[in-house]
Amino acid sequence: MEGMGKKPRRRRSFTAEFKAEIVELCQRGDRSVGQVARDFDLTETAVREWIRQAERDAGTGDGGLTSDERNELAQLRRENRRLKEDVEILKRATAFFAKETR
């Protein structure tokens, strides 16, 4: 039970190049995923997710979204949110001008 008193890790971000290097090290087979994670002070969960994402991007993964698809989805969600805001503004303006013309 020694891990019970640990503070949660601060969220860190890594470059795509760094992630690719870590994935390559794991796929080589010299070391286990756990060993690579320990060597670079990473969580094993993060490294496994990077490997899964690299497999998806290569077309050999579990059918999840590729990185390009994730980026496109995020862009479409932002655009959708903006368009909904525009529609709401137009609804309010229509109601305002309908009152004014009476």
TrEMBL record:
Q: Is Oxidoreductase found in the keyword set?
A: no
Give the matching InterPro entries.
Homeodomain-like_sf, RD_transcriptional_regulator, Transposase_8
Per the record, the GO terms for biological process are: DNA transposition
Coiled coil regions, renumbered to chain = 66-93
Q: Which GO terms describe its molecular function?
A: DNA binding; transposase activity
Alphabetical UniProt keywords: Coiled coil
- Quote the protein name from its UniProt record: Transposase
Q: Name its species.
A: Trebonia kvetii
